[in-house]
Design goal:
four-stranded antiparallel beta sheet
């Protein structure tokens, strides 16, 4: 049989308890129903948004690249479009005119510095956001059921192709853990220019200039006449004067100063005494290699949103968003509230059992003799928690029966996590 005991406010203690769990998911697990990590490429495309021709992105869900870029900018970087340390707030003062058309503002009026961009600490933030047409960002989205209340600071790690590792610094910044470089597949061009004097004219296919000394590996690409207008020795196939020629069908020997034309596109003519000079230009090209250094900022992480954003334009962002050789690791943080109920049985309470099996078979309800002895004490085996409507909410079983004491208070502590 049971006995009721009303809890007082002082009998209930609620303690928050933070629990953490580490996760590491290679790309092959991202589409699992119990994982659902996603990665999006955002691209800045100024102008009108047309869904029919806009590129999409995503692993588990499909989003428009343009809208991903704009959403990331609006949520996390709106106050950082002109400065990585934050834009100035609006400080304009209004000097009213005779009517609204005559109002004059003094000071900056651009709408910056007034939105919450979810800063992760009170330290000076570092947020760089690309704003040129065609530039990109990558957003790595972790679902709420994995990270709980927030991602544990200093726990996020993103690995790309075993050559780039991105870690968070505990303050919301993402940095490269080591130097990283990659071949963009494009060419990088280098130019060298030198002003040369015209020496002599031979015929429409050849003339001589002073010699030049371009760097090794550079190729002649153009010459631009700097003498009097209309007196240029450079002409087109119809012998009409032009100020500049390119290297199409033109060669120049840097060691002898001889310039020759095949005659099919360009030709030369006598300048009748106007000796120049002309600006000669050479070009060299090599594979365009982009890189980031160890410790360099590459983006930001918003811990309570489970969102990591890569913004550094020296990263292969497009390939990162589609590469299957990536791994995302982090630790979740979830707060459990441990409620402690203290059920105190005073020395004068519950010292007599309500169990009907203790009543003898007589009609007057006489108890068995062993029950009335001073040595008899009821035992507590189970504690039930009820609400105000007398509905059973939880049941706690003691590891072994506990006798009540007629001389001292007995306290039973019930811990309930939620």
């Amino acid at each position: 049989m049971g006995a009721w005991k009303q809890f007082l406010a002082s009998d209930i203690i609620v303690n928050p308890f933070e629990v953490n769990k580490g996760f590491s998911f290679p790309y092959s697990n991202w589409t699992n129903s119990d994982v659902q990590l996603d990665i999006f490429l955002g691209t800045y495309n100024p102008g009108t948004f047309y869904p029919a021709v806009s590129s999409t992105t995503g692993v588990n869900s499909t989003q428009y690249q343009t809208l991903v870029y704009e959403s990331i900018k609006e949520l996390y970087y709106f106050n950082f479009t002109t400065s990585s340390y934050g834009d100035s707030v609006i400080t304009a003062s209004l000097l009213p005119g005779s009517d609204p058309s005559g109002d004059v503002f003094r000071g900056p009026t651009n709408p910056t510095g007034r939105f919450d961009n979810y800063l992760q600490s009170t330290l000076t933030p570092v947020r760089n956001f690309p704003t040129e047409s065609g530039e990109q960002v990558v957003a790595i989205s972790i679902p709420n059921f994995l990270f709980g209340d927030y991602i544990q600071p200093n726990s996020f790690v993103f690995e790309y192709s075993s050559s780039l590792t991105v870690i968070d610094d505990g303050e919301g910044n993402l940095n490269s853990s080591a130097s990283f470089s990659w071949d963009t597949g494009e060419l990088e061009y280098f130019y060298y220019s030198e002003s040369l004097e015209w020496a002599s004219y031979t015929d429409p296919q050849e003339m001589r200039w002073s010699t030049a000394n371009p760097p090794l590996g550079y190729t002649f690409i153009s010459a631009s006449w700097q003498g009097a207008a209309g007196r240029t020795p450079f002409t087109d196939a119809a012998f009409d004067p032009v100020q500049e020629i390119d290297n199409q069908d033109i060669t120049y020997d840097e060691s002898t100063g001889v310039m020759q034309s095949g005659g099919s596109v360009w030709a030369f003519q006598d300048t009748t005494g106007d000796t120049g000079p002309a600006l000669f230009t050479w070009m060299s090209s090599s594979a365009l290699i982009k890189s980031v250094s160890a410790g360099e900022n590459v983006g930001n992480i918003i811990y309570p949103h489970g969102m990591a954003v890569l913004t550094n334009q020296n990263l292969p962002l497009s390939d990162i968003s589609t590469n299957t050789n990536v791994t995302c690791s982090f630790s979740s943080s979830y707060t459990i509230y441990e409620t402690q109920y203290k059920a105190t049985i005073n020395e004068n309470e519950f010292n007599f059992s309500n169990n009907p099996s203790l009543i003898s078979g007589s009609t007057d309800g006489t108890m068995y003799s062993f029950v009335t002895g001073s040595y008899f004490s009821p035992y507590v085996t189970t504690v039930g928690l009820y609400n105000e409507a007398q509905e059973l909410l939880a049941v706690g079983k003691l590891s072994q029966p506990l006798p009540t004491s007629p001389t001292t208070d007995t306290t039973i502590v019930i811990n309930l996590d939620r």
